[in-house]
Specification:
single chain, 269 residues, alpha/beta, Rossmann fold, 2 domains, five-stranded parallel beta sheet, four-stranded antiparallel beta sheet, 9 strands, 33% helix
Length: 269
Protein backbone atom coordinates (compact mmCIF):
# COMPACT_ATOMS: atom_id res chain seq x y z
CA UNK A 1 0.00 0.00 0.00
CA UNK A 2 1.35 3.46 -0.94
CA UNK A 3 0.36 6.93 0.26
CA UNK A 4 -1.62 7.76 -2.88
CA UNK A 5 -3.73 4.61 -2.42
CA UNK A 6 -5.15 5.63 0.98
CA UNK A 7 -8.26 7.26 -0.55
CA UNK A 8 -8.84 4.15 -2.63
CA UNK A 9 -8.74 2.06 0.52
CA UNK A 10 -11.24 4.34 2.23
CA UNK A 11 -13.68 3.76 -0.64
CA UNK A 12 -13.46 0.01 -0.11
CA UNK A 13 -15.21 0.35 3.26
CA UNK A 14 -17.74 3.16 2.65
CA UNK A 15 -20.24 4.22 5.30
CA UNK A 16 -17.96 3.29 8.18
CA UNK A 17 -15.83 5.60 10.27
CA UNK A 18 -12.23 4.43 10.27
CA UNK A 19 -9.14 6.22 11.50
CA UNK A 20 -5.81 5.38 9.94
CA UNK A 21 -2.23 6.14 10.88
CA UNK A 22 1.24 4.87 10.09
CA UNK A 23 2.54 2.44 12.67
CA UNK A 24 5.28 -0.14 13.17
CA UNK A 25 5.14 -3.75 14.29
CA UNK A 26 7.29 -5.01 17.15
CA UNK A 27 9.35 -8.17 16.82
CA UNK A 28 6.72 -9.95 18.90
CA UNK A 29 4.14 -9.14 16.19
CA UNK A 30 2.25 -6.47 18.18
CA UNK A 31 1.20 -3.24 16.47
CA UNK A 32 2.65 -0.23 18.29
CA UNK A 33 -0.49 1.80 17.62
CA UNK A 34 -3.46 -0.42 18.53
CA UNK A 35 -1.51 -3.07 20.50
CA UNK A 36 -3.16 -5.92 18.62
CA UNK A 37 -1.03 -8.89 17.61
CA UNK A 38 -0.68 -9.76 13.95
CA UNK A 39 -1.20 -13.29 12.72
CA UNK A 40 1.69 -15.66 13.44
CA UNK A 41 3.85 -16.77 10.52
CA UNK A 42 3.91 -20.32 11.88
CA UNK A 43 1.50 -23.00 10.69
CA UNK A 44 -0.17 -25.09 13.36
CA UNK A 45 0.44 -28.84 13.27
CA UNK A 46 -2.77 -29.63 11.41
CA UNK A 47 -2.07 -27.00 8.74
CA UNK A 48 1.50 -28.23 8.35
CA UNK A 49 0.47 -31.89 8.06
CA UNK A 50 -2.18 -31.05 5.45
CA UNK A 51 0.27 -28.99 3.39
CA UNK A 52 2.98 -31.63 3.64
CA UNK A 53 0.58 -34.33 2.46
CA UNK A 54 -0.51 -32.30 -0.58
CA UNK A 55 3.02 -31.28 -1.59
CA UNK A 56 4.61 -34.70 -1.14
CA UNK A 57 1.82 -36.79 -2.64
CA UNK A 58 0.04 -34.57 -5.16
CA UNK A 59 2.70 -32.14 -6.37
CA UNK A 60 6.06 -33.91 -6.16
CA UNK A 61 4.88 -37.45 -6.91
CA UNK A 62 1.82 -36.40 -8.91
CA UNK A 63 1.40 -34.79 -12.31
CA UNK A 64 3.72 -31.81 -11.92
CA UNK A 65 4.27 -30.23 -15.34
CA UNK A 66 7.13 -28.15 -13.96
CA UNK A 67 9.13 -31.18 -12.82
CA UNK A 68 11.97 -32.47 -15.00
CA UNK A 69 13.29 -35.59 -13.34
CA UNK A 70 12.64 -39.32 -13.49
CA UNK A 71 10.74 -41.56 -11.08
CA UNK A 72 13.97 -43.50 -10.54
CA UNK A 73 15.92 -40.40 -9.56
CA UNK A 74 13.15 -39.22 -7.25
CA UNK A 75 12.98 -42.65 -5.54
CA UNK A 76 16.75 -42.61 -5.13
CA UNK A 77 16.54 -39.20 -3.49
CA UNK A 78 13.70 -40.27 -1.18
CA UNK A 79 15.78 -43.26 -0.06
CA UNK A 80 18.76 -40.95 0.49
CA UNK A 81 16.77 -38.54 2.65
CA UNK A 82 14.96 -41.32 4.52
CA UNK A 83 18.25 -42.93 5.57
CA UNK A 84 19.43 -39.78 7.36
CA UNK A 85 18.26 -37.78 10.39
CA UNK A 86 16.04 -34.72 9.69
CA UNK A 87 17.80 -31.68 8.33
CA UNK A 88 17.81 -28.17 9.76
CA UNK A 89 18.48 -26.39 6.46
CA UNK A 90 18.22 -27.49 2.82
CA UNK A 91 20.30 -25.48 0.33
CA UNK A 92 19.67 -25.04 -3.39
CA UNK A 93 23.38 -25.04 -4.15
CA UNK A 94 23.39 -24.03 -7.81
CA UNK A 95 20.90 -21.24 -7.18
CA UNK A 96 22.68 -19.87 -4.10
CA UNK A 97 26.12 -19.99 -5.75
CA UNK A 98 24.89 -17.51 -8.36
CA UNK A 99 23.95 -14.82 -5.85
CA UNK A 100 26.54 -12.39 -7.18
CA UNK A 101 28.00 -11.93 -10.63
CA UNK A 102 31.62 -12.08 -9.59
CA UNK A 103 33.73 -14.58 -7.74
CA UNK A 104 34.17 -18.32 -8.05
CA UNK A 105 30.78 -19.99 -7.65
CA UNK A 106 32.12 -22.92 -5.63
CA UNK A 107 33.84 -20.46 -3.26
CA UNK A 108 30.56 -18.57 -2.73
CA UNK A 109 28.76 -21.83 -1.97
CA UNK A 110 31.55 -22.93 0.35
CA UNK A 111 31.37 -19.64 2.27
CA UNK A 112 27.63 -20.05 2.83
CA UNK A 113 27.82 -23.73 3.78
CA UNK A 114 30.73 -23.03 6.14
CA UNK A 115 28.81 -20.22 7.85
CA UNK A 116 25.87 -22.53 8.52
CA UNK A 117 28.03 -25.50 9.53
CA UNK A 118 29.63 -23.39 12.27
CA UNK A 119 26.20 -23.29 13.94
CA UNK A 120 26.13 -27.11 14.24
CA UNK A 121 23.17 -27.35 11.87
CA UNK A 122 22.38 -30.48 9.87
CA UNK A 123 22.70 -29.39 6.24
CA UNK A 124 21.65 -30.84 2.93
CA UNK A 125 23.12 -29.24 -0.18
CA UNK A 126 21.32 -30.00 -3.44
CA UNK A 127 23.38 -29.69 -6.60
CA UNK A 128 23.77 -31.00 -10.13
CA UNK A 129 26.40 -33.38 -11.39
CA UNK A 130 28.21 -30.80 -13.52
CA UNK A 131 29.23 -29.05 -10.27
CA UNK A 132 31.59 -32.00 -9.59
CA UNK A 133 33.46 -31.46 -12.85
CA UNK A 134 36.49 -29.22 -12.40
CA UNK A 135 36.15 -25.80 -14.05
CA UNK A 136 36.81 -22.14 -13.41
CA UNK A 137 33.47 -21.89 -11.63
CA UNK A 138 33.64 -25.16 -9.74
CA UNK A 139 36.86 -26.08 -7.95
CA UNK A 140 37.17 -29.68 -6.83
CA UNK A 141 38.88 -28.62 -3.60
CA UNK A 142 35.93 -26.41 -2.68
CA UNK A 143 33.39 -29.11 -3.50
CA UNK A 144 35.31 -31.66 -1.42
CA UNK A 145 35.14 -29.41 1.66
CA UNK A 146 31.44 -28.74 1.08
CA UNK A 147 30.80 -32.49 1.07
CA UNK A 148 32.58 -32.74 4.42
CA UNK A 149 30.42 -30.04 5.98
CA UNK A 150 27.02 -31.04 4.53
CA UNK A 151 25.21 -34.03 3.09
CA UNK A 152 25.12 -33.54 -0.67
CA UNK A 153 22.90 -34.94 -3.39
CA UNK A 154 23.70 -34.25 -7.05
CA UNK A 155 20.91 -34.66 -9.60
CA UNK A 156 21.20 -35.06 -13.34
CA UNK A 157 22.00 -31.80 -15.09
CA UNK A 158 18.55 -31.54 -16.69
CA UNK A 159 16.65 -32.07 -13.44
CA UNK A 160 14.76 -29.30 -11.69
CA UNK A 161 15.81 -28.56 -8.11
CA UNK A 162 12.47 -27.46 -6.64
CA UNK A 163 10.85 -30.89 -6.11
CA UNK A 164 13.92 -32.12 -4.25
CA UNK A 165 14.14 -28.93 -2.20
CA UNK A 166 10.48 -29.09 -1.18
CA UNK A 167 10.56 -32.81 -0.43
CA UNK A 168 13.64 -32.68 1.80
CA UNK A 169 12.47 -29.59 3.69
CA UNK A 170 8.93 -30.79 4.37
CA UNK A 171 10.06 -34.33 5.12
CA UNK A 172 12.47 -33.01 7.78
CA UNK A 173 9.73 -31.35 9.83
CA UNK A 174 8.30 -27.92 10.59
CA UNK A 175 11.60 -26.65 12.02
CA UNK A 176 13.51 -27.12 8.76
CA UNK A 177 14.33 -24.03 6.67
CA UNK A 178 15.46 -23.79 3.05
CA UNK A 179 17.67 -21.45 1.04
CA UNK A 180 16.99 -20.48 -2.56
CA UNK A 181 16.47 -17.24 -4.44
CA UNK A 182 13.64 -18.90 -6.36
CA UNK A 183 10.15 -17.61 -5.44
CA UNK A 184 8.58 -21.04 -6.23
CA UNK A 185 5.63 -19.39 -7.99
CA UNK A 186 5.32 -22.16 -10.58
CA UNK A 187 4.17 -24.59 -7.91
CA UNK A 188 1.07 -22.53 -7.20
CA UNK A 189 -0.53 -23.92 -10.36
CA UNK A 190 -0.08 -27.46 -9.03
CA UNK A 191 -1.92 -26.85 -5.76
CA UNK A 192 -5.55 -27.99 -5.70
CA UNK A 193 -7.30 -25.00 -4.10
CA UNK A 194 -6.84 -21.46 -2.79
CA UNK A 195 -6.65 -22.63 0.85
CA UNK A 196 -3.68 -24.89 0.08
CA UNK A 197 -2.07 -22.10 -1.95
CA UNK A 198 -2.44 -19.75 1.03
CA UNK A 199 -0.84 -22.30 3.36
CA UNK A 200 2.00 -22.93 0.91
CA UNK A 201 2.98 -19.29 0.57
CA UNK A 202 2.62 -18.71 4.30
CA UNK A 203 4.87 -21.70 4.94
CA UNK A 204 7.30 -20.32 2.37
CA UNK A 205 7.45 -16.91 4.08
CA UNK A 206 8.16 -18.62 7.40
CA UNK A 207 10.81 -21.05 6.15
CA UNK A 208 12.72 -19.47 3.26
CA UNK A 209 16.00 -17.96 4.41
CA UNK A 210 17.01 -14.93 2.36
CA UNK A 211 20.55 -13.68 1.76
CA UNK A 212 19.77 -10.13 0.53
CA UNK A 213 23.29 -9.55 -0.78
CA UNK A 214 26.69 -11.14 -0.56
CA UNK A 215 30.21 -9.88 -1.17
CA UNK A 216 32.89 -12.55 -1.58
CA UNK A 217 35.14 -12.68 1.47
CA UNK A 218 32.68 -10.78 3.65
CA UNK A 219 30.51 -12.08 6.49
CA UNK A 220 27.39 -14.00 5.48
CA UNK A 221 24.25 -12.31 6.88
CA UNK A 222 20.80 -13.83 6.42
CA UNK A 223 17.65 -11.80 6.81
CA UNK A 224 15.85 -12.92 10.00
CA UNK A 225 12.48 -14.62 9.64
CA UNK A 226 9.80 -12.70 11.54
CA UNK A 227 7.36 -14.22 14.01
CA UNK A 228 4.40 -12.55 12.27
CA UNK A 229 3.05 -12.63 8.73
CA UNK A 230 3.68 -9.65 6.44
CA UNK A 231 0.48 -9.67 4.38
CA UNK A 232 -2.66 -7.54 4.70
CA UNK A 233 -4.51 -8.61 7.85
CA UNK A 234 -7.95 -7.68 9.16
CA UNK A 235 -10.26 -8.27 12.11
CA UNK A 236 -13.75 -6.90 12.77
CA UNK A 237 -12.27 -3.63 14.06
CA UNK A 238 -8.83 -3.29 12.44
CA UNK A 239 -6.88 -3.44 9.22
CA UNK A 240 -3.09 -3.80 9.11
CA UNK A 241 -1.53 -3.15 5.72
CA UNK A 242 2.18 -3.17 4.75
CA UNK A 243 2.90 0.43 3.86
CA UNK A 244 5.43 1.97 1.47
CA UNK A 245 5.99 5.69 1.03
CA UNK A 246 5.58 7.06 -2.48
CA UNK A 247 8.71 6.79 -4.64
CA UNK A 248 10.30 4.30 -2.22
CA UNK A 249 10.74 0.85 -3.70
CA UNK A 250 11.00 -2.28 -1.55
CA UNK A 251 12.37 -5.50 -3.00
CA UNK A 252 10.18 -8.61 -2.67
CA UNK A 253 12.48 -10.12 -0.04
CA UNK A 254 12.58 -6.98 2.14
CA UNK A 255 10.44 -6.79 5.26
CA UNK A 256 7.94 -3.89 5.39
CA UNK A 257 9.08 -1.40 8.02
CA UNK A 258 5.90 0.66 8.10
CA UNK A 259 2.31 -0.45 8.43
CA UNK A 260 -0.97 1.36 7.98
CA UNK A 261 -3.10 0.69 11.07
CA UNK A 262 -6.82 1.34 10.48
CA UNK A 263 -9.19 1.25 13.47
CA UNK A 264 -12.97 1.41 13.44
CA UNK A 265 -13.92 4.51 15.39
CA UNK A 266 -16.71 2.98 17.46
CA UNK A 267 -14.25 0.38 18.74
CA UNK A 268 -11.99 3.15 20.05
CA UNK A 269 -14.64 4.71 22.28
Amino acid sequence: MRTRNLKTLQRIIPGEDWKGCVSAVENSGRCQRCRQSLESIHLNQEEYDNLKDVILNDVIQGTDTFRKTTPEELRQFQKFVGSRPPYDIVIDGLNVAGICGRGCRSQILLDIVSHLAQQNLRLLMLGRKHMLKASGSWWRSHMAVIQQKADCFFTENISEDDPFLLYATLNSGNHCKFITRDLLRDHKACLPDTQTQRLFFKWQRGHQLVLPFYTPGKQVMFQPILNYDTIVQTTADTWHIPYDMDNVERASYEVPRKWLCLQRQDSMV
